[in-house]
Amino acid sequence: MVLKAGPFRLYQCIKVVRQSPKISIKMRLKMLMLIPVAGSLIQLARKNRWKHYHAHSCAHSALLLLYARLLSDLSYSLTLHGPLSMYGPAQRDKWLHADFGITVTEKLRNEVLESLPDVREESIFVVPMGVNLDVFIRRTEYVPPMPPGPFKIITCGRLHFGKGHQDLIRAIAELNEYNMDVYLKIMGDGSEHSALERLINDLDLSERVVLMGAVAEETVRDELEQAHVFALASHDEAIGVAIMEAMAMSLPVVVTDVGGVSELVRDGREGLLVKPHSPGDMAKAIGDLLMDSKRCCRLGKSGAKRVRQRFSSERSAELIYGQIVSGIQ
Question: How far apart are CA 216 and CA 214, in angstroms?
């Protein structure tokens, strides 16, 4: 299929590799190896009469679709979930040849426009990631925290340094020093499991902080329903599906003001925003919230309303589908 496309089209693919600056020989070989894969993709598309592909990433899957476009004019679109620097070379070509592009936050859209000035502004749309509201819905009414406790804090995210679980654990230790009866459950697994386990033991929190490991979606929902507050201390976050899930469950949230999180959580309206890398600020925000049951209820209700209106997975899918249909008609 690649050879049938002709030498000029094949050269356009090779040109993408040649013009990608500051990448290793290994990466260039990987890029070249995707060209024949694109030929197989074109055959598959023609066999099934597929008119459009959408890459839910801007990494190798988008590069594969770029090659398919250069070899056959097969149309495609792509979604950016984080900083462009995370998704490899040839970003300019990936975006220029796409029918349209999607970013999950306004901040990321601005980054694309600033970094890739050749890309048409009208071809980039903001479509937030969404949560399945059929799954993340309360079966029982939210019960706010009542002093003197116990207080149940929940978080969810892979055990990676950038998720800031170590900061949240230190915040729990600080609250414990102030004699607050606080307990934390961390849902998720990853490379930092052993390091976090040591930190918990060093801070003498083994009876107050639990690493639950990887859990099923239903378990996530159940744990959110039983908690008083959701907290996430990420150092960076595109927007935060875990935060959306907690908000959908009417939980008040205390999260770091990073990435596009402020496009989801407006400080003091749907939750509380704190500085990243600051266990002390996180501890104070959580502690103040636990002492104010009315505020917990108000923030939780506002958060659930915002997610239902703007961040459902159904709405996100409809927006993407609408752009695809309008492009191929």
Answer: 7
Number of domains the chain is built from: 2
Buried b (16+ CB within 10 A) or exposed e, 200-236: beebebeebbebeeebeeeebbebbbebbbbbbbbee
Query: How far apart, in whole angstroms, are the C-alpha atoms of residue 307 and residue 263?
Result: 11
230 lies in which domain range?
151-310
pTM beyond 0.70: the answer is yes
User: Measured between alpha carbons, how far is 270 from 304 in angstroms, rounded to an integer?
Assistant: 8
Residues 290 and 318 in one domain: no
Q: Are both 281 and 186 inside the same structural domain?
A: yes
Residues 199 and 300 grouped into a single domain = yes
The 10s digit of each residue's pLDDT in 194-238 is: 999 999 999 999 999 999 999 999 999 999 999 999 999 999 998
